[in-house]
Amino acid sequence: MNDKPAIGAAVPRLTSLSHGGGCGCKIAPGVLSALLARSTPLTTVFPNLLVGTETADDAAVYKLNDEQAIVATTDFFMPIVDDPYDFGRIAATNALSDVYAMGGKPILALALVGMPINVLPHDVIAQVLRGGEDVCAAAGIPVAGGHSIDSVEPIYGLAALGVVHPERVKRNASARAGDVLVLGKPLGVGVLSAALKKEILGDAGYKAMVSAATMLNKPGATLAELPGVHAMTDVTGFGLLGHTLEIARGANLTARVQYADLPWLPGVQKFVEEGVFTGASGRNWASYGESVTLAPGLPESARTLLTDPQTSGGLLVACAPESVDDVLAIFRADGFSDARVIGELSEGPARVEAL
């Protein structure tokens, strides 16, 4: 029996082979919390484990010595786009983001590959791998190995390792009252991916989505060197509200987000008004909506937009007010022209208010 599609056979759209795409594939935050509720706090058992699973942080961090700690993470998902090379690039960028979000610098990656070998031509699969390799090359690291399986749905991602000084680790739980929130990338990847799946996303929208999702969050390593940067995370599958809430809960503070100040990818609001968005928005809201207040004057679409799952989204930084100019300068020096202040943190219950 032939082990690959016949020559000339129609190649299926990558997104048609999966039930979800990108970080919208994530298990809903409420379900994930329940699954991890009985996990033993490992940092009490392993003193060199600086960051474990206790605070829903972006990666594990293990102290090697007084000068070095290892950042370890993994991330993979099903296709968010149909172009295999772009799929590989987006997935790799997203995986490396967790290293940058901890303040680390990547040193190597391993590929995680699950592909329907009898459905997709082998050259298509090779393009996915090449996309990931090219992103890693741009980050200055090798794809040094990995693991592959024959799966029903296409899956690709990385296990990534990085290094960071133990005193420069930036957790998502170390924000302080009075901190300002800065977001590095525009929002709306989930909405645009839904439009793509419905085949109503134009070339300009596609280019904007891929451009945002393939920007490596390199500023994270430089931001970690600023004493005024207290906490960092990246905005991914739980949406802006979900990841802001993680910061608020970790520090037991109230986060206020100014809706009018948020950066958006082009066309996102219009698509939502037309009913184009992912099912993950609803799952996200069901998981954490009780800890969020939406101001009465916000548009009807605000809830969907604020819970939109981001794939390879921007860094969310909590910093002292006097460090804002330095934070924005670091972002913009690396090409993140949409970086901007979006809110603040203050004393109060652990929740998010969107104003």
Automatic annotation (TrEMBL):
Cofactor(s) listed: Mg(2+)
Enzyme Commission designation: 2.7.9.3
Enzyme class: transferase
Keyword annotations of the record: ATP-binding, Kinase, Magnesium, Metal-binding, Nucleotide-binding, Selenium, Transferase
InterPro entries: PurM-like_C_dom, PurM-like_C_sf, PurM-like_N, PurM-like_N_sf, SelD_I, SPS/SelD
Domain PurM-like C-terminal span(s) in chain numbering: 176-349
Cofactor stoichiometry and binding remark: Binds 1 Mg(2+) ion per monomer.
Residues marked Important for catalytic activity (site): 26
Domain PurM-like N-terminal: 57-164
Entry annotation: catalytic residues: 23
Keyword Protein biosynthesis: no
Binding site for ATP: 26, 55-57, 75, 98, 146-148
Reactions catalysed: hydrogenselenide + ATP + H2O = selenophosphate + AMP + phosphate + 2 H(+)
Binding of Mg(2+), residues: 58, 98, 234
Subunit description: Homodimer.
Protein family: Belongs to the selenophosphate synthase 1 family. Class I subfamily.
Role summary: Synthesizes selenophosphate from selenide and ATP.
Protein name: Selenide, water dikinase
